[in-house]
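**User:**
Make up any protein.

**Assistant:**
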Amino acid sequence: MEPHANTPEVDINTFYKTISAKGKAVMKQRRSQGEIMHKAPLGYKNARDKDGRSILVIDPKTYPLVQKAKDLRAQGMSIRKICAVMEERGLRTQRGGTFGPSSMLKILKRQSVHAQGAIERSSTKP
């Protein structure tokens, strides 16, 4: 007797397309309910609300530093100088390193995110 004799024949491509469609539908539903489906950007932390949904909350340690970096850029400070100032103030990467100019530029260009997860598109250039 074959090991999978009672298993119905299913085309593997159809199987993967079905699984993919189901996964996409679940993700779309969760996003529509305000759940955050990604890792929190610098300045925020992932948390759960009272209903168990994933949300963003402000990280009191890094949020003020990110805002200060954005303010310094708005005042015309160079990206390299901002990196140096943020290093002095203790802003670090997840691995404990310092931010280089390209990483800092990405942070400054990133959209503003409210604590409840709504995204505000930045209209100013960093």
